[in-house]
Amino acid sequence: MAEASRWHRGGTPKPNLHYSKEVEIRTTLQELALYFIFLINLCILTFGMVNPHMYYLNKVMSSLFLDTSAPGDERTNFKSIRSITDFWKFMEGPLLEGLYWDAWYTNKTLYDLKNSSRIYYENILLGVPRVRQLKVRNNTCKVYSSLQSLMDECYDRYTSKNEDLADFGLQVETEWKYSPPDSTSPWHWGFVGVYRNGGFIFTLSKSKSETKNKFIDLQLNSWITRGTRVIFIDFSLYNANVNLFCIIRLVAEFPATGGIITSWQFYSVKLLRYVSYYDYIIASCEITFCIFLIVFTTQEGQKIREFKSAYFKSVWNWLELLLLVLCFLTVSFNIYCNIQIFLLLGDLLKNTDQYSDFYFLAYWHTYYNNIIAVTIFFAWIKNMFLAIINDTYSEVKADYSIGRRPDFELGKMIKKSYNNALEKLRLKKPEEDEDKKNEKGGDLVERARREGFDENEIESAKQMKKWKDRLEKKYYSAEIQDDYQPVTQQEFRELFLYAVELEKELHYVSLKLNRVMRKISTLPA
Q1: Do residues 388 and 263 touch, judged by C-beta distance below 8 A?
Q2: Against a cut of 0.85, is the pTM above it?
Q3: Do 378 and 322 meet the contact criterion of CB atoms below 8 Å apart?
Q4: What pLDDT, in 10s, does the model give residues 308-319?
Q5: Coil, helix or strand at residue 124
Q6: Can you tell me whether residue 459 is helix, strand or coil?
Q7: Residues with Cβ < 8 Å from 64, sequence gap 6 or more?
Q8: Fewer CB within a 10 Å sphere, N or C end of the chain?
């Protein structure tokens, strides 16, 4: 019987890769290639909107207005302001000298300034700078009764409820009269408060001497009071060499504790977007991005209709929805920014004697950059982490955990395509199918009968072959979908009998090998 069991070793041919598997792999590869193109397009959009000139323009302007010291006092610059005296020294010194560049360094007029300053000779000052302050009313807080004889005034921190709306001082110019806030302007988040627009506002003159006299007059008439909580200095520049706008805001906060806390914002943005050929490439990428967004939204809609509530039970599906929401926000911000730039830019540039509020445009443009940065972050997380770790890694780990060698259909498909290409190029002989190879062996049962095996041995071998086929189909088939297959009691019994039969066959082969070795040893040398 042991010898008869040799006929089943060939076993059944391995099943060919299922058609659905091949379709699934091809579909996965197509989706991966499509998503990779989407990522490249998104990267071009993200990094195409920034360039090194933005950093250098911010650096030059921050050095001029933040690090330059007042004449005769090397310790006083905008960063080091701690008192009202330091603040007026900065206004009359570094700020005044930084804003008004009306001649070349040789004191000669090099070109027609057209009634505008050119900072560092290359950056046009758009309109005129604006200065505004926000105040709080007296008695917005309560002094303890025992200390009221020492101090009967109390100015709380800034809030919209505590804001002082009454005119004060000379009450003749705009800097002494309250201006209501604009509802469309964004609020400013400072170190010690959140400030709205409006307040007591004045703009600087085109003349350097007139502006200096203005500062002196404000200082002598105590424009800054105990109720002052913040002062904003806003102005905008444009550099035609690099097609960039630089929107600058210098902030001096006066907390209720006393002293001054300074902060600043420098926004270098490209508001005139479609100028060069490279800009039109970016525009084509924006159109492509919208097409991808429509395709991905359609796919997710089909999944929701197909799986219904089960769709929302997967964390990865929620990530897909988050990515779609971010993409829609990116498109919405882009459209909104372009519309506002188209509507406001022309009017802002016409009124050269007034303050040009480019801060509003820079504010939303910066938010657009932030949203698209978050979008590309989650897009790469989805591609490089979730897709790989969640699918491939978990399957391979599960295969090794139960002792099964992982079946890489993708590698087999690539190898099969490679061999087919070599055969078509006649660089390799065609391989015969497994079915044909098994057919050449003929009917093993009939061959066993012709070789003289009795029916008991053939039936025993057929039983072993049946066990082997069933076990291989369940535990080693390429079509297995589950990671774990439980072993029933009947299957365990068959495994045990199969092992016993293999042990008998091994013992028979060992005995036959010993007989052969003894015969060889008796042969004459």
Answers
A1: no
A2: no
A3: yes
A4: 888 888 887 888
A5: strand
A6: helix
A7: 94, 98, 119, 120
A8: C
